Amino acid sequence: MADIILEMKNITKEYPGVKALDNVNFKVERGEIHALVGENGAGKSTLMKVLSGTIPYGEYTGDVVYDGNVCRFHNIKESEKAGMAVIHQELALIPELSIAENMFMGNERRNKLGVIDWNQTNRDAEEAMKRVGLKESPEVLVKDIGTGKQQLVEIAKALSKNPKLLVLDEPTSSLNEEDSKMLLDILLGFKEEGITSIIITHKLNEVAYCADNITVLRDGQTIETLTNENHTIDENRIIQGMVGRELTDRYPERKHEISDEVLFEVKDWTVYHPVYTERCIDDKISFNVHRGEIVGFSGLQGAGRTEMAMSLFGKTYGSHITGQEFIKGKEVHLKNAHDAITHGLAYATEDRKTNGRIQGRHCQ
Question: What's the pLDDT tens digit per position in 117-130?
Fold first, then answer.
């Protein structure tokens, strides 16, 4: 008989005019990696918010049974006390504080006098950081590392609480393929230690690689749970459950209409770090983009891709920037984001929360 660590029974959550979860049932076995998949809006993150207490008891109907007990969490602290650690899709770090300070905020390492023991804090932070492959000093400010590494800080922060159940909502969304595989291998290592993991991801190759069971949600309802014990479930089978039909053409053929006209050109673009100004981030980068062309940039985390894009977009990143930018053959000097937009450039940031939108109270 399966050892069930978590069972969510008949979970229903409604918002005005929308039923986000409709009688959802979800079981997780102890020590497994269980993937929760579905299209955008299927209800995956909402279900995990119910589990963690982010959506408190009383605002949904149904039962959460964890470790054999019916739980009625009213906030995330209660679920953490029970042995859960949830890493939400949106990062919850304070940029002006160090990695170690972020990791142990509210859970400070104190000495016998009640004073924070910074040496112990940094040692514990380093230990958790090593488990996720972070090599930075724990004293580095969060604002000075990239979004992908900030995601790893969130995971290290969760691990520092020694959870029995680890929930990860889109943990690899900001990571490259190599770092993503490293994280999945870490989860497989946790499985050997007896830690149970729930992973929400749109990267179905990751699901097929590491998940023991796969539960599919569609339109706020449980569709099916697929057993992937031998890792034989492929992406096409998962997609079939997500969309409700077999897809015969996942990648429709498209026409390439690339003009001879060079629309955008960069020559000898060099960028230095905005804080550590002696550190060169991008050194003499040159490329051009033809009208109608898609140009991709690849590289490991920290290779300078994001920094290059931001610096080209009105020098919104970096210091001591040199080089030339050309739009339609004419050199331009973009001093800020407004200049870039005026000249027809747009930038879709990887960090929408910090750089992509203005967050504040709505005007009345």
Answer: 999 999 999 999 98
